[in-house]
Design brief:
The complex is a heterodimer of chains A (about 425) and B (about 90). Chain A has about 425 residues and is α+β, with helices and mostly antiparallel strands. Chain A is built from 16 helices and 14 strands. In chain A, the strands form four sheets. Chain A has a seven-stranded mixed sheet. In chain A, strand 13 and strand 14 form a beta hairpin. Chain A starts with a helix and ends with a helix. Chain B is an all-alpha fold. Chain B is built from two helices and no strands. Chain B starts with 6 loop residues before the first helix and ends with a helix. Classes of the chains: A alpha+beta (about 425), B mainly alpha (about 90). At the A-B interface, helix 1, helix 2, helix 13, helix 14 and helix 15 of A face helix 1 and helix 2 of B.
Chain lengths: ~425, ~90
């Protein structure tokens, strides 16, 4: 195994120890803390720097961790919004877009005409783009509705959550060659008083589709309609308009999820919009992933695309493809045409390994048994031949083969013990 | 006394020795297969760790069976090695 891969692997194996360490610590931590404590490797030892690199890669690849600043990291708390990164030498086209209150709550982006013109979004009625934020890829679906195009899907909400996007915050799409990067600006205003009524009405109307939604989703959408907050009794009364619930369940969800904030002085619950995420704890304390629904936007019959055409439509071309000269994102992969590329799904290798795990070591045992000689049978056969030799007085043959006979018999005896042990384990 | 009296015993012993050598080669082959499998599982674990879209719970759920399989195969290999060492004694 290569050196880098070796340390990446060691870190992967110890990932649950790392989680236990940072959870138990209950405060910010550094990579040095993890390497010195979890891996028991001091900074003066050669492997330290390799472990440090591997731990950093692990933290970056895990959405439960946030880089605060300098060497400090945190677990499960608000990420610091990074300033827009200045583009490299490669030519990029930047499109700045402001995320509105309703977009942040519902997990979608109404695409600006500039962005549609610069990407292949204009070529098809719907499709998928891979968008990079902070070295991680997010899958954004797009769909045209009348003259507007919308980016939507779990990937959009995951990006909002990972970047801790606030309403009215600008994000920049940087389009270069085959990649679309997103940067989040750090200019936004946290104000619960400036939400336009039209947006609040839009969220309230969307709650008509709430009956099939999880309690958590209804709860944060409901609270988003009341930026000043609601007390528990008010929440309960409003909630019953959409779904039956107990105050006990409501309280559990409110207490367990960081997007809900309790104001002790006013005895009200408020929504922290930038904390809305698809990952939450339900009323029973289970960690749940929420698949977002967009029926409220695209209509009752809308199903989230599973890699094929949306709503039974074909992947019709909006503009004649021939008239579009090499779009700079022409080579961006389109997931719609590759239904097997769902990233959360297990890879073929993982699935193959799953079936082999069920198999245990049976396969190898069966292989070994093909060449196995029973020591009991062997002993009987040799004993018979030894008696025959003895009776006929061929002592020379007995002396010659005594040691070999013992050696083979003992060997297969050990093999038999080995096979018995492992066959027993696999039962 | 006749040399033919010990012939059957000689043949049997030679046949058994040959089977023992063949079995040892089979063990070597199984060893190689398991080591390749271990490398493949390590690759899968690294792949799971690098999937940002997975929550920690999902990540752990997918990794634990793989790690258990690795531990099982490691123990199996150690047992096989012991078998060969004892044979060489």
């Amino acid at each position: 195994m290569e050196n880098k891969q070796f340390y990446d692997y060691q870190v992967a194996r110890k990932s649950s120890d790392i989680m236990s360490f940072v959870k138990g610590r209950n405060q910010n931590f550094t990579i040095e803390d993890i390497v010195t404590i979890v891996f028991e490797t001091s900074t003066s030892h050669l492997p330290y720097k390799f472990y440090a690199r591997a731990v950093e890669a692990f933290l970056k690849a895990n959405k439960d961790f946030y880089h605060i600043q300098g060497t400090l990291w945190s677990y499960g708390s608000k990420p610091i919004i990074r300033p827009t990164v200045i583009a490299t030498k490669e030519k990029t086209n930047d499109v700045i877009q402001e995320i509105t209150y309703v977009e942040r709550v519902k997990g979608y982006i109404k695409v600006s005409p500039k962005l549609t013109n610069l990407t292949k979004i204009r070529l098809r009625k719907h499709g998928t783009l891979d968008v990079i934020y902070d070295n991680c890829s997010y899958e954004f679906h797009w769909k045209w509705l009348y003259n507007y195009c919308y980016l939507f899907g779990n990937g959009v909400m995951d990006f909002f959550a990972d970047a801790g996007i606030h309403p009215d915050q600008d994000i920049t799409f940087s389009i270069k060659s085959t990649l679309i990067d997103i940067h989040a600006s750090n200019s936004y205003q946290i104000s619960s008083q400036s939400v336009p009524h039209a947006q609040l009405d839009q969220i309230e109307e969307s709650l008509q589709f709430a009956k099939d939604q999880p309690l958590f989703t209804i709860l944060y959408e409901l609270l988003s309609c009341y930026p000043y907050g609601l007390n528990l009794k008010e929440i309960y009364q409003h909630f019953l308009e959409y779904k039956l619930v107990t105050t006990h369940d409501l309280k559990n969800i409110l207490k367990q999820n960081e997007c809900f904030e309790y104001d002790v002085v006013e005895d009200i619950w408020k929504l922290k919009i930038n904390k809305i995420s698809r990952f939450y704890q339900d009323e029973l304390g289970n960690e749940v992933e929420n698949d977002l629904s967009y029926a409220w936007l695209f209509g009752d019959n809308f199903q989230m695309p599973s890699g094929k055409a949306i709503d039974g439509e074909d992947a019709s071309i909006v503009e004649d493809k021939e008239t579009v000269k090499e779009s700079i994102v022409e080579s961006v992969e389109e997931r719609v045409e590759k239904p097997n590329e769902e990233p959360i799904e297990k890879t073929k290798e993982e699935s193959d390994t799953d079936s082999e795990i069920e198999e245990g070591t049976n396969f190898y045992i069966a292989d070994l048994k093909k060449g196995f000689v029973s020591p009991g049978d062997l002993k009987k056969e040799i004993d018979a031949l030894v008696i025959e030799c003895f009776n006929k007085g061929d002592i020379q043959a007995l002396e010659k083969h005594y040691q070999d006979a013992q050696r083979v018999y003992r060997y297969f005896q050990k093999v038999e013990q080995f096979l018995n042990k492992w066959e027993g384990k696999n039962l | 006394m006749s040399g033919n009296d010990g012939q059957k015993l000689t043949e049997k012993i030679n046949e058994s020795l040959s089977k023992m050598e063949e079995f040892k080669r089979r063990i070597e082959s199984v060893n190689e297969e398991i080591e390749a499998k271990q490398t493949e599982i390590e690759g899968n674990i690294l792949q799971i760790v690098s999937k940002r879209k997975l929550s920690m719970k999902e990540r752990t759920e997918r990794m634990i069976p793989l790690m258990e399989q690795q531990d099982l195969l490691k123990e199996f290999l150690e047992d096989l090695d012991t078998l060969e060492e004892k044979q060489n004694e």
